[in-house]
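Checklist before submission:
- one chain only
- standard amino acids only
- sequence pasted in full

Submission:
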Amino acid sequence: MTPAPAGVSGDGIPAEISTEIPGEAILAGVPAETLAGGAVPTETPAENGPLASPPARSGESPLALKRRARRINRALAEQYPYAHAELDFRNPFELLVATVLSAQTTDVTVNLITPLLFSRYPDARAMAEADTEELEAIIKPTGFFRAKTRNLLALANRVVDEFDGVVPGRLEDLVTLPGVGRKTANVVLGNAFGIPGITVDTHFGRLARRFGWTESDDPVRIESDVAELFEPRDWTMLSHRVVFHGRRVCHSRKPACGACAVANWCPSFGAGETNPAKAAKLLKYELAPGNEELLSKLLAETHRAAEIRMESQRRPQ
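Returned file contents:
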């Protein structure tokens, strides 16, 4: 990605906060299929548990790895037929801005502030002319609001000046925008333009290592490694399913192995709680105990999944 001018905000936070994970920007403009390089150290036990992130099963051939990976994807598709982008948006500009805001916060928090944000600034031209203090006040709940405000203003101005106010639909153009790297670009391309892409966020990277799909913790290498295992047409939905699973079941510190739909094909089984009853208590969101009604509704109306999720988030907990 191409960051905006460097600096430090009044609260000591770096001026530009990226939505990407460290290392992503190194080869941001290079197509994944052309990348090469060796594996880098996997996550530490403090991040993923004492038995997390092993390589693929011992002696597993490339063909066996591909078959196992695709079996995991099929199981995740059965588990999450309602998987979708969990940021609310109506057009490429809204998704781009929401993804930038999602750095270091939750999608739920972003979704709470974007209705007001987009009512004030519905497009890049309006946001480019925004008052800095007013924009900061709206996005403050997402954290790092001064740095994010600078990124959004710079991004909006760049879209207006370089792309006539229209969010570009090419990866090589998107990654030139302030605060945008391959992860954000692939989110926008896959969900707003229908162009297949693998979105490597912290959840996807963690699970790709646990599944033995990669040994790297560099997002660009992870994207390349995983792309070799699946057809391009599957990349966008694969990303949603893996992220859904990471948020709901395969947690960073205490994965619910005993309640995992892909346990039979996961070389990391045993990194977390294996007792089914205890593991069930670790599940989150619609899979959590007490949310059976929400899960039933999502399964029955997969075409309305985003709307159902939005309704559930508005209700008092």
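Reviewer check: Residues 49-79+197-283 form a domain with the Endonuclease Iii, domain 2 fold (CATH 1.10.1670.10).
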